[in-house]
Amino acid sequence: MGRESYGSSSYGAVRPPAWLGGLVGETFFVGCSVHESRKKNEKNIFCLECCRSICPHCASTTSHRHHPLLQVRRYVYNDVVRLDDLEKLIDCSYVQPYTINSAKVVFLKQRPQSRPFKGSGNICLTCDRILQEPFHFCSLSCKVDRVMMQGQDLSSILHRFSQSDFAFSRFDGLEDDGRITPNSILEDPLQYNNTGSGGTTGSSEDLAVEEINGRNKNKKKEKHGKSSSNGGGGFLPQIVMSLSNRRKGTPPQRSPLS
């Protein structure tokens, strides 16, 4: 098939190409209905030719083996793609990447937020998520939505790519019969302390800030509860205070002799 162009102006100003709409709209990491009886049948591959998610068993068949394939990974229940792979398809400038397992990744879709951002700071132009400077978008879909809302031509950010860059042979650990699934589950950032990239990109720990803050709050509440129980009323605390007063020289209260 040689080199393919998915950035043709024939798509118009606001209509995304089929592969782009499929990539941000497809559901990944669900069981494949075609290979439901086989192990490791999660859909973690996107076929750029058929514009849909497939499993490793599908990828190894003649229907998809010679199609350009993009591997999708999973991080904290969200779909991500390696930045090196995605930049071959579309301009990812100003989309904040994260360094996870020594690889830079980009989120495909918006992530739910527990509360809306209030205050000043650098935020996503589409969903108001807090970002680091100088980034403007938290995910690929946020950038695409912004371009479409402004009525700009999507062809300005789409790239030509070589099919060899997304060949089936590039998948590590994927055997001919599709029995081995690519390593697509990224590690939990809370298990690592030195994963961050610093500077211009977010780190894996940035993605768990809310969870870490929540744990710290719970610890403070537990600590406060323990201190309250030790210093408050009750039978045991009163005995401790009485013993303390005796050590300080306070004469004990004795009942008169009968």
From TrEMBL:
Pfam families associated with the record: PLATZ
According to the UniProt entry, which residue ranges have a biased composition of type Basic residues? 216-226
The alphabetized UniProt keywords are: Metal-binding, Zinc, Zinc-finger
Location of the B box-type domain: 32-72
Q: Which domain of life is it from?
A: Eukaryota
Record carries keyword Thylakoid: no
A GO molecular-function term, please? zinc ion binding
InterPro entries tied to this protein: PLATZ, Znf_B-box
Name the PROSITE patterns on file. ZF_BBOX
- Region feature (Disordered): 180-258
Stated name of the protein: PLATZ transcription factor family protein
Q: Which organism's genome codes for this protein?
A: Zostera marina
